[in-house]
Amino acid sequence: MRIRSDSTAARVRAAARRAPARAHRGLKAAIAVPSERGIPHLVAPREGRGGQPLGRALARIAAGAVRRRLLRSTRARVELGDRGVFLDVDLDTSHGLHVYRHGWSDAAADALDELLRPGDVVVDGGANLGGFTLVAASIVGPRGAVHAVEAAPETAALLRRSVDANPRLAIEIHEVALADAAGELEFTTFEAGIGTASFAPQDRGLVVRVPATTLDALTAPLERVDLVKLDVEGAELRALQGARRLLTERRPLLVIEFEPGHLARQGASAADVEALLTDAGYVGFDIVSGDGRTRFVELQSPWGRPTGNPDILVVPAERRERFDGGSGQAGL
């Protein structure tokens, strides 16, 4: 998804052009972060900025510096493609600043146009700042709903800002962790929005206690569940172990971050996840993006981490044919 400038961004760029020389010197200092070799790193590599052109990236870096240093503003909105929805980002956080500079992109979110319809109900486990949540909500519309689950307290506060910035969307936030049993668990958090908070033991970060629930308990009151996304930094197996009734009775589509290294840090493995899901009658697909379209290619056992985007699509075996035999687009 490409970033689009709003009217505020236009005013910021105009202010940058009018800035006096001394402000310009401050601007250069603001946007140049010295590397170990003393060479300024002004912009992320192309793959790290969603394919954004270099000139646009540099313009956004300058605009971000003007906002923070001259206008003393640390809040900004980033539009997600042409969907008319916005992330409300904090420019004082590294992730928020990166999103403002380079935009937000996610192959799994791009695939949602193939996977969702108006009226669907989605659970976003590990919602972070809410990019996936907002895209899903823009598709399912007012007759559907998205339940955004985020356990890290400071990140949940930023998520709430983005939800509040899009009042027409049907989104409910759940400030809990997803696990194999309800209770209270230790959770290691880092800077808000960075997306690495987890149950796994860490040698840094802030350890907090957070409420935990299961997907079965969370979804029990819902009339329907059409898609569940899990990006919970290696706790995917624990979350799925708490979803046995959901997988058996509701049979939703699943979008799962499939990172063997993250799983290993929590005592799990890719084979464990594959075994649980195949026993539940699911099949896995790689999400392949390119040329403005998304394809789904069936995974062969043993499942491995896909090249590039780590997210996989997992579907009930009885719906396999809707994905063109594992080599094409979904036929919902």
Explain what the structure shows:
- It is a single chain.
- The chain has 332 residues and is α/β, with parallel strands linked by helices.
- The chain has 2 domains: 7-102, no CATH class; 107-326, Rossmann fold.
- The chain has 13 helices and 15 strands.
- It has helices at 7-18, 21-31, 54-70, 94-102, 107-110, 112-115, 131-140, 153-164, 215-219, 236-241, 244-250, 260-264, 270-279, and strands at residues 33-34, 40-41, 75-79, 86-90, 121-125, 145-149, 171-174, 177-178, 183-189, 206-213, 227-230, 253-257, 282-290, 293-298, 311-316.
- The strands form 4 sheets. The protein has an 8-stranded mixed sheet. A 3-stranded mixed sheet has the order 8-10-9. Strands 1-2 form a two-stranded antiparallel ribbon.
- Helix 1 (7-18) crosses helix 3 and helix 2 (21-31) packs across helix 3 (54-70).
- The longest helix has 17 residues, at 54-70.
- The two termini are 23 Å apart.
Offer a concise description of the structure.
With 332 residues, this protein is an alpha/beta fold. Helices cover 34% and strands 23% of the residues.
Mean pLDDT: 82
Q: Estimate nothing, just give the exact number of structural domains.
A: 2
Helix content range: 25-40%
Strand order of the largest sheet: 7-6-5-11-12-15-13-14
Q: If you compute it from the alpha carbons, what radius of gyration comes out, rounded to the nearest whole angstrom?
A: 21 Å
CATH architecture of the largest domain: 3-Layer(aba) Sandwich
Query: Termini distance?
Result: 23 Å
Spell out the CATH superfamily of the largest domain.
Answer: Vaccinia Virus protein VP39
Query: For the record, what CATH class of the largest domain applies?
Result: Alpha Beta
The name CATH uses for the topology of the largest domain is Rossmann fold
The number of helical segments is 13
Question: Low-confidence stretches at least 5 residues in length (pLDDT < 50)?
Answer: 1-42, 325-329
The overall strand count is 15
The geometry reads as globular
Order of helices and strands: HHEEHEEHHHEHEHEEEEHEHHEHHEEE
Major sheet summary line = 8 strands, mixed
